[in-house]
Amino acid sequence: MREIDRATANKIERLIRSGIRSLESVESYVEELRRDAQVDEETLRRKTAVFKALSDPTRVKVLELLDRRGELCVCEITAALGLTQPTTSHHLGILEKARLVRGRKEGKWNFYSISDRDLWTKIKELVA
User: Can you give the pLDDT at residue 1?
Assistant: First the structure.
């Protein structure tokens, strides 16, 4: 782990002296902060995938459509959004990787639905 720069160390020392933080030393506090900032790689990957999936307007449109309609075939999503089938499949793949939608195959047909309605409701409330 790299050392903090002198300017940052000085600011933390001022925090301690001002009484805003009651700490013994800059070094122990920085170690504590770094422990709290650690996230295991799998958790980090999953959270990043969700935010990546939600960062594209087309994917949000797919989720809104599935929210209103329930389960839809890829061809229905393609028609509703005016996309090509490969583009639709690409967006659905990203949403599926983020665990926001789930797919099922029925013969040659691929159907998708929102995988966790409670999570989708919370996401909508967050940005309402």
Answer: 56
